[in-house]
Design a protein that fits this description.
Number of domains: 1
Radius of gyration: 22 Å
Order of helices and strands: HH
Largest sheet: none
């Protein structure tokens, strides 16, 4: 097994499998860019005087912090469960 990527001379994937993978990648790419455009529109929003709408930016930062907190809590919960399993 190569440490530099997939083997060059392995079993080839069928045309249907490659097409399915391409479709999945395209769908994921469209979803990413759609979400990115929505986020950009919120960040770039301006009020009637041309100043940035800070409420949108504060909301975005709050969502990011909440996402990180949930991830940290989930990691801590997983570690606690593993410690309990090892203690038994």
């Amino acid at each position: 097994m190569s440490t530099y990527g997939p083997p060059l001379f392995g079993p080839s994937t069928s045309g249907q499998e490659r097409e399915r993978q391409r479709q999945e990648q395209e769908t994921a790419r469209k979803k990413y860019y759609k979400e990115r455009a929505k986020t950009r529109a919120l960040v770039m929003a301006r009020n009637e005087k041309g100043q940035p709408r800070l409420g949108n930016q504060v909301d975005r930062i709050l969502q990011k912090l909440q996402r990180e907190r949930r991830a940290n809590n989930a990691a801590a919960d997983n570690a606690a469960e593993a410690a309990n399993a090892n203690a038994l």
